[in-house]
């Protein structure tokens, strides 16, 4: 049975409606998938940027903390250095006061002559040279000359050698020296410094831990005391 034109047009419209419906459904499916993929990508990008921002601020926070630690350490070190400098200056002042007190020793001629005799005798024992020159302050020449024989005699048995000890009358200890003597041998190549300042310095170095304890108390952080 042949279809009429009206039937053909009806079928064509029906097919077109079906195709259009499928096309719309496919378009909606594509739109939905595109929307889903867009949301997924958007979420991924947002999360990625969020992690980057978090990492950035974490780095910044660590940098700030590090800077704070460095600044705190620098301030602490500066404070320690100031304390150490003040302590060193105080110790230096104490030693300067000690040097000033040495002048009292030289005023007592009897005690000073005994001290000079001991310093000379000690220097002779240290040098053990056949010829020794003694250098002193210019104002001490007579006193030093007077004690040389007794100083040498006191150690003669100990050193078991003849020693010619003479006073150097051309070179002297500085005018502002506290006193004492220097002993020289081998044209001045060998020297024993027994000036009062040198002896004070030697004692101060040996007793420095005790001096610091007396002035500032014991250091709780210190492990060794020799």
Q: How is this structure best described in words?
A:
There is one protein chain. The longest helix is centred in the first third of the chain and has 103 residues. The chain is of the alpha+beta class and 226 residues long. It has a domain of 107 residues: 2-Layer Sandwich (hypothetical protein PF0899 fold). It contains 5 helices and 4 strands, in the order ααβαβββαα. It starts with a helix and ends in a 10-residue tail after the last helix. α3 links the parallel β1 and β2.
Summarize the structure.
This protein is an alpha+beta fold. The chain is built from five helices and four strands; from the N terminus they run ααβαβββαα. It has a four-stranded mixed β-sheet with strand order 2-1-3-4.
């Amino acid at each position: 049975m042949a279809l009429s034109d009206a039937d053909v047009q009806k079928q064509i419209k029906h097919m077109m409606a079906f195709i259009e419906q499928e096309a719309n459904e496919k378009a909606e499916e594509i739109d939905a998938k595109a929307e889903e993929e867009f949301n997924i990508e958007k979420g991924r990008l947002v999360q990625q940027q969020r992690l980057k921002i978090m990492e950035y601020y974490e780095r910044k926070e660590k940098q700030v903390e590090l800077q704070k630690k460095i600044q705190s350490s620098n301030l602490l070190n500066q404070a320690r250095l100031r304390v150490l400098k003040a302590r060193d200056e105080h110790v230096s002042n104490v030693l300067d006061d000690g040097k000033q007190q040495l002048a009292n020793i030289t005023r007592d001629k009897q005690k000073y002559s005994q001290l000079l005799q001991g310093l000379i005798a000690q220097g002779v024992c240290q040098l053990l040279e056949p010829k020794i020159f003694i250098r002193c302050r210019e104002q001490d020449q007579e006193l030093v000359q007077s004690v040389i024989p007794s100083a040498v005699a006191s150690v003669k048995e100990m050193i078991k050698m003849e020693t010619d000890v003479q006073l150097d009358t051309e070179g002297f200890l500085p005018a502002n020296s506290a006193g004492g003597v220097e002993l020289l041998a081998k044209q001045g190549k060998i020297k024993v410094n027994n000036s009062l300042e040198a002896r004070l310095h030697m004692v101060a170095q040996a007793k420095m831990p005790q001096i610091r304890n007396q002035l500032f108390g014991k250091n709780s952080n210190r492990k060794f005391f020799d």
